[in-house]
Specification:
alpha/beta; transposition; DNA-binding; five-stranded mixed β-sheet; IS6 family transposase; disordered C terminus; IS_Transposase; DDE_dom; single chain
């Protein structure tokens, strides 16, 4: 997947949605750049600061540090970015505007449409593989 992935822009949109895995609702953290290209994703059982922070560290280490991140009013995402800025002495600007995050919200619709016929996933591994394939589709220009 990394070979086919193009470079991402310096402005990210970060959001989370929920999907069903083994009959349990799990959270899918996703980041897309300004043009709608997927930066990274993380599937986790809990929606908390540590999950958002591990996702942010993973996304930055796989790509690079963004200049600005647009998020909704999520407290866990805000706290994760503030902790990252404090620990790494960087200045990632946080913009909390729901209208700037529409690219991510519309992308959630595409993912849920792709997996709705399966009524959720049977395991985390199958969810990871399917989601990486869906995100790989969005890399094609």
């Amino acid at each position: 997947m990394k070979k086919r992935k193009g470079s991402v822009r310096a402005s990210w949109r970060l959001d989370e949605t929920y999907i069903k895995v083994k009959g349990i609702w799990c959270y899918l953290y996703r980041a897309v750049d300004k043009l709608g290209n997927t930066v990274d994703f993380l599937l986790t059982r809990k929606r908390q600061r540590m999950s958002a922070q591990s996702f942010l560290i993973k996304a930055i280490s796989n790509n690079y540090r963004p200049r600005v991140i647009n998020i909704d009013k999520s407290g866990s995402n805000t706290a994760a970015i503030k902790v990252y800025n404090k620990r790494s002495f960087s200045k990632i600007k946080i913009r909390q505007c729901k209208y700037l995050n529409n690219i991510t919200e519309q992308d959630h619709r595409f993912i849920k449409w792709r997996i709705q016929n399966g009524l959720g996933f049977k395991s985390f591994e199958s969810a990871r593989r399917t989601l990486s394939g869906i995100n790989d589709i969005s890399f094609k220009d």
